[in-house]
Amino acid sequence: MRRTLTAAxxxxxxxxxxxxxxxxxxxxxxxxxxxxxxxxDDLSEVKVGYFPNLTHGTALVGLEKGILQKxxxxxxxxxSTFNAGPAEIEALVSKSIDIGFIGPSxxxxxxxxxxxxxxxxxxxxxxxxVKLVVNPDKIQSKDDVKGKTIATPQLGNTQDxxxxxxxxxxxxxxxxxxxxxxxSVVRTDNxxxxxxxxxxxxxxxxxxxxxxxxxxxEGAKVLLDEKDLWPDEQFVNANIVxxxxxxKAHPKVVEAFLRGTVKTNAWIxxxxxxxxxxxxxxxxxxxxxxxxxxxxxxAWKSIEFTxxxxxxxxxxxxxxxxxxxxxxxxxxxxxxxxxxxNQVLQDESQPGVHDSGLGTD
Length: 361
Fold this sequence. Notes:
Largest sheet: 7 strands, mixed
Structural class: alpha/beta
Strand order of the largest sheet: 1-3-2-4-11-5-12
Strand content: 15-25%
């Protein structure tokens, strides 16, 4: 069933660069992910993008433990990391990657900008892991947020939209583009937020993990966990998307990849401490630095890794962007294709998931 709304205007595709060469940087000495056996559909390579963030823990653990590569056999995974959603969507459109882990706002962007022809969401990946953390000397309650300066990672990104929606629900007004109003919103890259917080550049931040826990380590306090604002304390923070052309040409490869992500999430649930360590090892491989225990321990606990795309919450997030003035009402009908995921879940004796009426016909 398709849900038809009016024509879409995408959220701002800001010109953020990817991590290094080309669209994304490729990990080196990745011995856990060496293709073995016969390629699926005679395809020698599948290119996978993700962020070196804990909310992309399914990618971090699946790669570090070799679970994803095992399911793909002789089809070699070539991973690339990205720092920003627009860069990863650009890579998907240009076929520099085939499959990607990405947040809901960039996924909506990519789908609407391509008039529904660029990508499909084929699985969930993570829920939760987003907090409003504040300087306790300046903010003790939510009412104190008014008149203060709050940082979000990027104009129009998932956390920016969530904060603007929360501000609106308090009855306060902020111009989304300029960030000026009853609250001053400053868009600040996650990488520099700890130093910016120490310098007093902002009074609080609505940010994903592990940035939230990094700021807490610098003396900030958690004022609000975003999951408390959602039914059942669940909301999509990361999805798995695929190029529609790749999905059409190589469904068996996509199915094998999804089998790997489902098995990875099951392994994470069964081995939380080992999974946390594997994710940290992968972060060290990708970024050159592991997270200290005082940061990764609370951050990891706040994230739920899930195969369920939590489609209703993506639709709600799109409507939040519309309300903030960052998006005209989009046609999200067909953004999900969960057929292969549900087949894998059935094979693994797990319950299926739903697209909330936003699936393919």
